[in-house]
C-alpha cells in the first residue's frame, strides 16, 4: 500500500428513506476542520442509495465540496452486502486518506466490514478527532509520523481515554457517535461537484432480501434535539417522583432525560439515557438533578452550553463540570425553582 496515493477527507453521508441523517452533517463539520489541518482543499461526502441525488445540495450547504453518488436500486434500503460493496469500491477508486462514518446502527455494521475489506484499521465510537504527530510523545525507538488522524475514545468501560492512530494503513477510519461533532451553519446556495460512480451490483447469496420493514413507533422525546434538558438521576428516588422534574421541564419548555441508574431501575426508557452507553447531548441548558456525575454520564453531556447541578452532596463530581451548583435536597429545590420560574414568566406576560 502506497500511503501517498491516499488523499482527502471523506465522510459516509448516511441517509434513510431519502432523508439525510443528522450525523452526516455533523461529520461534514468535523471533516472541514481536519481538511484544513491537512491543507486539503476538499471534503468529499459519499452518498449511497436509490434516487438520492436530491440530497446533494444539502450536503453542499453543510460543507461538502464534492459528493460521490452511488445511485442504484440495490441500495434502496440499507443492506450490509451491497452497501459494503459500494463503499469499498469508492475507497478503492478514490483512495481517501481519512473516512468518517457515523456510529449509528448502520455505521456500526458498515464501517468495520469496509475497513476489513480494504485492509485498514477502524477506531469505533470516537469522541474527539484531530490531526497531529504519532506517537504522541516522541520516542527514539519509533519514527514520528506527522499529520496523522488521532482518534480519541473512552476505553475500559470509560475508565480511561485512549488516543489511537493508524499510521501504516489507509484510509484512517473512525466511527463517531451522533451528537458529538458540530454541524457548520449552512451556507445557503452552496454547490458541490457531483461525481456519479457505479461499481455494478451482482446479487449473490450475501444479498439479504428485505421482506418487510416494521418501524418502531417511538413515543419518547428526542433528547438530542432538545435545547433544554432536565435530567434526573438515582437521587430522584422513584419513577413517581420524576413528576417534579416533569413540572420543571414543562415550565421551561424543556425535555426530561436521565442517567443510566434511572434506566436500570426501570423508571425511564433507555431512549432518555444520557452518557457513554446512552446518548450524547449538547443542549443550551442541562440540569443534572440527583446525578452524581460518573465519568460515563459526564461523557454524554459535558459539551452542554450551561450545566446546573442540584445535589445534596457538595463533593459530588457533577459539581466539577457544572457552571452553577445548588447543594441541597432536590425535593425542596426543584419545586421551588419551578414555582419561581412560573411566577417570573407570569409577571412577564
Ligand atoms: C461501561 C459503563 C457504561 C455506563 N454508561 C452510562 C451512561 O451512558 N450513562 C450514565 O448515566 N451512567 C452510565 N454508567 C453508570 C455510571 O457509572 C453511574 O453508575 C451512573 O451514572 C450513576 O447514576 P446516578 O448519578 O443517577 O446515580 P448515583 O451515582 O447513585 O448518584 C445519585 C446522586 O443523587 C444524589 N442525591 C440523592 N438524594 C438526593 C436528594 N434528595 N437531593 C439531591 N441529591 C440527591 C446523591 O448525592 C448522588 O450524588 C455506565 C457504567 C459503565 C461501567
TrEMBL record:
Pfam entry (one): ETF
A single GO molecular function term of this UniProt record: electron transfer activity
Biological processes annotated in GO: fatty acid beta-oxidation using acyl-CoA dehydrogenase
Residues given in the record as FAD binding sites: 234, 259-260, 273-277, 290-297, 311
Electron transfer flavoprotein alpha/beta-subunit N-terminal domain segment(s): 9-216
Cofactor(s) needed by this chain: FAD
Keyword rRNA-binding: no
Cofactor note: Binds 1 FAD per dimer.
InterPro entries: DHS-like_NAD/FAD-binding_dom, ETF_a/b_N, ETF_a/FixB, ETF_alpha_N, ETF_asu_C, Rossmann-like_a/b/a_fold
Keywords: FAD, Flavoprotein
Family to which the UniProt record says this protein belongs: Belongs to the ETF alpha-subunit/FixB family.
Protein name listed in UniProt: Electron transfer flavoprotein alpha subunit apoprotein
Organism: Butyrivibrio hungatei DSM 14810
Amino acid at each position: 500500500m502506497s500511503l501517498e496515493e491516499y488523499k482527502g477527507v471523506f465522510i459516509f453521508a448516511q441517509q434513510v428513506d431519502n432523508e439525510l441523517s443528522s450525523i452526516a452533517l455533523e461529520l461534514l463539520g468535523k471533516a472541514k476542520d481536519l481538511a484544513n489541518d491537512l491543507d486539503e482543499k476538499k471534503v468529499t461526502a459519499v452518498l449511497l442509495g436509490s434516487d438520492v441525488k436530491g440530497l446533494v445540495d444539502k450536503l453542499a450547504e453543510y460543507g461538502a465540496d464534492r459528493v460521490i453518488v452511488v445511485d442504484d436500486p440495490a441500495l434502496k434500503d440499507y443492506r450490509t452486502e451491497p452497501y459494503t460493496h459500494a463503499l469499498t469500491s469508492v475507497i478503492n477508486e478514490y483512495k481517501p486518506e481519512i473516512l468518517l462514518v457515523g456510529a449509528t446502527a448502520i455505521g456500526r455494521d458498515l464501517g468495520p466490514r469496509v475497513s476489513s475489506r480494504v485492509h485498514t484499521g477502524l477506531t469505533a465510537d470516537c469522541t474527539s478527532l484531530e490531526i497531529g504527530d504519532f506517537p504522541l510523545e516522541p520516542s527514539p525507538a519509533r519514527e514520528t509520523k506527522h499529520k496523522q488522524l488521532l482518534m480519541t475514545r473512552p476505553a475500559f468501560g470509560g475508565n480511561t481515554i485512549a488516543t489511537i492512530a493508524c499510521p501504516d494503513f489507509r484510509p484512517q477510519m473512525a466511527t463517531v457517535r451522533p451528537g458529538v461533532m458540530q454541524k457548520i451553519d449552512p451556507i445557503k446556495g452552496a454547490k458541490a461537484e457531483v461525481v456519479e460512480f457505479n461499481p455494478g451490483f451482482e446479487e449473490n447469496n450475501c444479498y439479504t432480501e428485505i421482506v418487510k420493514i416494521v418501524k418502531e413507533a417511538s413515543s419518547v422525546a428526542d433528547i438530542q434535539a432538545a435545547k433544554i434538558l432536565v435530567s434526573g438521576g438515582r437521587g430522584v428516588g422513584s419513577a413517581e417522583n420524576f413528576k417534579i422534574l416533569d413540572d420543571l421541564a414543562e415550565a421551561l419548555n424543556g425535555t426530561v432525560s436521565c442517567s443510566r441508574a434511572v434506566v436500570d431501575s426501570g423508571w425511564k426508557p433507555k431512549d432518555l439515557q444520557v452518557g457513554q452507553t446512552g446518548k450524547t447531548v449538547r443542549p443550551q441548558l442541562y440540569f443534572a438533578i440527583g446525578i452524581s456525575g460518573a465519568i460515563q454520564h459526564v461523557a454524554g453531556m459535558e459539551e452542554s452550553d450551561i450545566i446546573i447541578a442540584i445535589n445534596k452532596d457538595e463533593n459530588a463530581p457533577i459539581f466539577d463540570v457544572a457552571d452553577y451548583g445548588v447543594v441541597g435536597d432536590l425535593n425542596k429545590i426543584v419545586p421551588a425553582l419551578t414555582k419561581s420560574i412560573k411566577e417570573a414568566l407570569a409577571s412577564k406576560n
